[in-house]
Design brief:
With 325 residues, this protein is α/β, with parallel strands linked by helices. The protein is built from 14 helices and twelve strands. The termini are far apart.
């Protein structure tokens, strides 16, 4: 800066203190986005987060820059992608999905906020939801009590319901909580619940073989990354046998399951922007308790119901947030 410009700036600072704040406001915050998934699978959720950031006053290219890193379904790439973001460096890393557990073990210097489908306590990411560690906090999608509510919904769809198969990944943090809730609800409703552990494709195929020889009347799928990746396979198997599928995330109903009842994920991603804003403004992650879902949705696939010859009860239709015709 030459002498004249320096003196002009100095004069503006002395006469107009707001000039200093205006200059500070133009500082560009750098946010890293890190996931092991592919970009298309998260497009609607990234859109929701970006819209919420805009409402909070962030304008990409003006006061915010987002560095995106996608693992393209290669979970082993997460450490190198995290290191890349720290080299930039970014002010904050937003972690998504399965990448969160790995990042929790890396002891990064950069603060982290996350969205996570599992239970953060079971994953050893925090001692409790109210007490996240110094470096990480965020939101969980898990609402285990809804597994029992989904069995109640199945009873409304199938009045004579007696037996339900449960497909779940026992390596998903908090799965044991979801299983316990389902079993307790099943006992209360007089249902037999058959549990099938599906950690990988072989175990999923084995589960299909066993379910084929068992007179189950419905399948409940615990939502996690593995279930999402294999949802079409699960739905096609069940529909071929005229057995309805229920799960927690909207993408299952959108892919052909009978219905879903669980957290509205786009709202969780919108809420994520609040955490980003707080940390970028200096908040310590440990002062921001981990949040559970607060908004839920019931989605019914009427096409699937018709194909399976299942009458949708009027009481369920009236509660639905969306009906796929």
């Amino acid at each position: 800066m030459d002498r004249r410009k320096f003196l002009t700036a100095l004069g503006l600072t002395a006469l107009h203190p707001e000039y200093v704040f205006a200059q500070a406001a133009t500082k560009i915050a750098r946010m890293g986005w890190l996931t092991a998934q592919r970009e298309p699978s998260l497009t609607p959720y990234v859109k929701a987060m970006r819209e919420s950031l805009t409402e909070l006053g962030y304008v990409e290219g003006k006061n915010l820059r987002i560095e995106f890193r996608y693992g393209d379904d290669a979970i082993e790439r997460v450490p190198e992608l995290a290191a890349d973001l720290e080299r930039i460096p970014v002010d904050l890393i937003v972690a998504q999905g399965a990448a969160v557990e790995i990042i929790g073990k890396l002891k990064l210097k950069t603060p982290v906020v996350y969205v996570f489908s599992g239970d953060p306590v079971s994953a050893h990411l925090a001692e409790s939801l109210a007490n996240p560690p110094h470096s990480m906090t965020g939101l969980t999608f898990m609402a285990a009590e809804f597994n029992g509510k989904r069995l109640e919904l199945l009873r409304e769809f199938i009045p004579g319901l007696q037996r339900v198969a449960i497909i779940a990944n026992p390596e998903h943090p908090g799965e044991e909580i979801e299983r316990r809730d389902s079993e307790e609800a099943g006992q209360r409703l007089g249902l037999v619940t058959d549990f099938f552990a599906t950690r990988n494709s072989k175990e999923l195929d084995d589960a299909f073989t066993k379910i084929s020889t068992t007179p189950v009347q419905a399948i409940s799928v615990f939502a996690d990354g593995f279930a999402i990746q294999n949802r079409q396979k699960i739905i096609e198997f069940s529909n071929d046998r005229r057995v309805p599928v229920i799960s927690g995330w909207a993408i299952f109903a959108q892919s052909g399951a009978l219905c879903t009842y669980g957290p509205r994920l786009t709202e969780s991603y919108r809420r994520l922007a609040y955490y980003v804003d707080r940390v970028l403004k200096g908040a310590d992650p440990s002062t921001l308790p981990i949040e559970r879902p607060t908004k839920f949705e019931l989605i019914i696939n009427a096409r699937t119901a018709k194909a399976l010859n299942i009458a949708i009860p009027q009481s369920v239709l009236l509660r639905a947030d969306q009906v796929i015709e």
